[in-house]
Amino acid sequence: MVKSSLYMTWAKHHAAARFNLANSGMIGCDFSDLPVSLDDVSLNGPNHEGYLPLKQAIAEKYGVTPDQVVTAQGTSMANFLAMATAIDRGDEVLIEQPAYDPLLGALNYLGAEIRRFHRKMENEYQIDIDEIERLITSKTRLIVITSPHNPSGFPVERSTMKHIGELAATVGAKVLVDEVYRDILFETAEACCFHLGPQFLTTSSLTKSYGLSGLRCGWILCDPDFAERARRLNDLFGAVGSVPSDTLSVAAFRNLHLLESRTRSIIDPNIALVREFLNNHRNYLDCVMAPRTMIAFPRLKNMAGSDILHDLLRKHDTSIVPGRFFESPQHFRLGFAVRTEDVLKGLNHLSTVLHQLG
Length: 358
Known about the structure:
The chain has about 350 residues and is of the alpha/beta class. The chain has 2 domains: about 5-25 and about 255-355, Alpha-Beta Complex (Aspartate Aminotransferase, domain 1), CATH 3.90.1150; about 40-255, Type I PLP-dependent aspartate aminotransferase-like (Major domain) (Aspartate Aminotransferase, domain 2). It is built from 11 helices and 14 strands. The strands form 4 sheets. Strands 2-8-7-6-5-3-4 form a 7-stranded mixed sheet, with helices on both faces. Strands 10-14-13 form a 3-stranded antiparallel sheet, with helices on one face. A two-stranded parallel sheet has the order 1-12. The longest helix is centred in the last third of the chain and has 25 residues, at about 255-280.
């Protein structure tokens, strides 16, 4: 059994570069972006079942109650807790392909019987409901989806998600939706999938859309009974959260409007740059790009796989994520929620290497 994520190991040790187009989320913010003081921070406090003010802040954001919120160390831990609570070893799980590697790694670690459904570029990475109908069985206990999709950035259509929930309900399965990129959609975002029915579990964090990775503030939205079971399971892992991090996270929720403005100011010009770049490099790349996103998943045309592309880019101090980490070696993930000048230079280096390979 592989007890690791190959992608996370690579990302920690090989992704860093001066022009980092491998970054999967918003460039980190600092205290100048978030008006907080030491008065907002506590070193210790009651958080045995999650820090209540933080659960209240999350609940208010989504229109739920605090007993429907489980806090966790980032979306990754939220996903692991949700999956580990929902299934037992040998249970059947449906998960998208391509998929975010840590999700697959966690399911393998938990001993799931994994079945795959496809999200294809030709269909703008939407889910074919007919394929779900063919795959789901009385043994299915969980369906795992990212929406917006990692690595493509495309959200699942609301009607499709509702239909998936209806299918899951017929066999007593849960639907886990990782919504960590949802807030990047801003006013175009559909309501959180948790509201589609009791079979839905959703996860998210303050990391991808707001640049607060260091706080490790993640959460699950779920029914109160599931939440209680997830908290008991977490007694074996995180046990309790970090009060300084939790209190800073509460301050962040009070200032989400400021963080959202910062995010818009960074990604709006970059979306236009990347879209223009992809249009100008159609001889080398196939790609569909979501209307609002901070990631894209181009496919290389008629050339070697994306590992070679990455190796050549390293000579220009530029990085992308090779597609093998998403089971798609001819693709690569492009992240552009960084400074516009870095995106420009990184894309120029990418253009140089594509011409070199082409």
